[in-house]
Design a protein that fits this description.
The chain has helices at about 10-25, 40-55, 70-85, 125-130, 135, 180-190, 200, 205-215, 235-250, 305-315, 320-335; strands spanning about 1-5, 35-40, 60-65, 90-95, 105-110, 120-125, 145-150, 170-175, 195-200, 225-230, 250-255, 265-270, 275-280, 285-290, 295-300. The chain is of the alpha/beta class. It has 2 domains: about 1-145, no CATH class; about 205-335, 2-Layer Sandwich (Dihydrodipicolinate Reductase, domain 2), CATH 3.30.360. The chain has a 9-stranded mixed sheet with strand order 4-1-5-6-3-2-7-8-9, with helices on both faces.
Length: about 350
């Protein structure tokens, strides 16, 4: 079910949510966190689909702020006229709760199958209100629940200085989805705080777990150097190499393949030969140990839902990520030539 409130206020939105909870016999106290999404209209529905799936594990209230709402206003008005001519079976209702002054804030409230395990509030403020986005969301937060902020694309240069980011328990970015991923991540490196994490790092979780398990297998010979291969301009590849350099304290080189679609292999040089893990299919990898038969293991590519579910389930600071970007990244990228 979707309820659209045109030219509304946050107090009217909060009242509408309370009434809908009463009608449905639900309570917002069942939400484990509030997730605020800050995004442009072009990325909104994809982000909401991701969160809908992830919220099955982590029930939450989602507040999405559309940063280019004024561009979308004419389209929304056309949709409203079309919907008004259709039957009520669409389960979409429209309300104009503020008849005074110019149009400043439109909103949608989504429940049920349109909202995963929680409710979704989509806010479309005029540009002048964006500088006060914290005041917009405060009346809508779930009381006594952590606040997580996610920028699905084009994060701010310093998330901790963002009005909502400054209030957050956890700040999630995704530099890979930015218009210029390299520039976006370079800015995040300069301004990263203890509450920050980027999904480029979360995409390496399976690789890190399997490589650590592989290194625990005998014989426990010292590694003298590491080579990591994968897609060109792929931030997870760069972060995995930085993690290995930090943990092993040996030279790590990166081989970038413009034809690759992800991380394709990690090769450890030891006195007895080369131990490696190579992705040879989209969902499989092969482990090679000197003097042993190869082993094939499952290694599916991580989806956005996998990554967001992981981060929504871990609200404490990711200290390993902090160490990797502050100490491991320079160990690789001050030495490597692209």
């Amino acid at each position: 079910m979707i309820v659209r409130l045109n030219n509304t206020t946050t107090s009217a939105i909060a009242q509408e949510i309370d009434e809908l909870h009463v009608e449905r016999g639900e309570a917002a106290q069942g939400r484990v966190l509030t997730l605020v999404i800050v995004t442009e209209q072009a990325h909104l529905e994809t982000a909401l689909e991701t969160v809908n799936a992830a919220s099955r594990e982590h029930p939450c209230r989602v507040i999405a702020i559309v940063t280019n709402a004024e561009d979308h206003q004419a389209e929304q008005e056309a949709d409203q006229r079309t919907a008004a001519a259709q039957s009520s079976e669409d389960c979409v209702s429209y309300k104009n709760t503020n008849h005074d002054g110019d149009r400043t804030l439109d909103a949608e409230i989504r429940f049920g199958s349109d909202a995963g395990a929680g409710e979704i509030i989509v806010l479309r403020p005029v540009l002048a209100l964006l500088s006060h986005s914290d005041a917009l969301v405060i009346p809508l937060l779930v009381p006594d629940a952590p606040l997580v902020v996610w920028w699905p694309a084009n994060p701010p240069q310093d998330p901790s200085k963002d009005p909502i980011g400054a209030m957050a328990t956890s700040r999630i970015t995704d530099a890979m989805e930015a218009d210029d991923p390299q520039t976006a991540f370079a800015s995040l490196l300069k301004h990263s705080g203890t509450a920050d994490v980027d999904l480029s790092w979360t995409r390496t979780t399976i690789w890190r777990a399997l490589l650590a398990s592989m290194m625990d297998q005998p014989p426990h010979l010292p590694v003298t150097s590491v080579r990591v291969t994968g897609q060109t301009h792929f931030l997870p590849l760069e972060l995995l190499a930085s993690w290995l350099a930090l943990k092993l304290g040996v030279p790590v080189t990166i081989e970038r393949d413009p034809q690759a679609q992800a991380i394709t292999g990690v090769f450890f040089k030891r006195s007895d030969g080369t131990m490696s893990m190579e992705r040879h299919k989209a969902d499989q990898a092969r482990i090679n140990q000197p003097g042993q038969a190869s082993q094939t293991i499952s290694m599916p590519l991580r989806t956005a839902v996998d990554c967001m579910s992981e981060e929504m389930g871990r609200l404490d600071p990711d200290e390993v990520y902090r160490d990797v970007i502050s100490r491991g990244w320079p160990m690789v990228h001050e030495r490597c030539t692209r």
